[in-house]
């Protein structure tokens, strides 16, 4: 798909009447990406140095188009280095200088090969956009690391609550907006007491010194227990303490309902989970995948 796109761009710039609209749009994407990541003090500078109106004029007039486009690419690569980590600046400068020298070589051969200009432009743009994509990923990862303490704390809970309310409305409208959740709770209610009583009975007959964790019917049905090497049950001395079911009605209902969801034979999809789990359904899918790998 990507190759087909660039082929279209290349073809549009060839011939006696080239169409530079694709090229201008791509340069606009580069400018917007730089503008989005740059600080307020650099935004005006970026706009002035990547002037789409001037670019369109020089390309259409066939005068100094190569030179001005080269200036834009050189400026864009320089701004990329400024926005990137200082540790990468020297390495990026070497690769950028190498690219610019190659583009100059293509431009010098324009008289011998009419397509040399097109090849140089596309190569430069693709390189710049790939560098931008890598930088955007790096910035996103850095932002996530900065937000991690907030997300793990009360701020994360508040965000999920607000996102859920924005999507499904207020609690007073739950009977209308949360139909899948209501159906899930109703189905789980029919088996809660049976599952809980069996769980309590298994605790009573299991020796206190035994490290094997009892499994309720939901986990046993059609599945085996993991062997000793694959067991993920925390052992004595582990610093990870998992909360035990308190036996309260809501606690039992949610836990057993979740077990029912992940114990399905078919792979879990977003559209099939209750509304209350759609914002975080991939975690459920991950647990289901782990459960499916348990040996028979």
Number of domain units: 2
Share of residues in strands: under 5%
Count every beta strand, where a strand is a DSSP E run of 2 or more residues: 0
Question: Number of helix segments?
Answer: 13
Distance between the amino and carboxyl termini: 42 Å
Q: What is the element string, with H for helices and E for strands? A: HHHHHHHHHHHHH
Specify the biggest β-sheet: none
* Amount of helix: 55-70%
SS class: mainly alpha
Q: Quick check: average pLDDT? A: 77
Poorly predicted parts: 214-239
Give the overall silhouette: elongated
Task: Explain what the structure shows.
Belongs to the TCP11 family. InterPro entries: Tcp11 (IPR008862). The protein is an all-alpha fold. The chain has 13 helices and no strands. The protein is 69% helix and 0% strand. It folds into two domains: 2-152; 171-206 and 214-227 and 243-292, no CATH class.
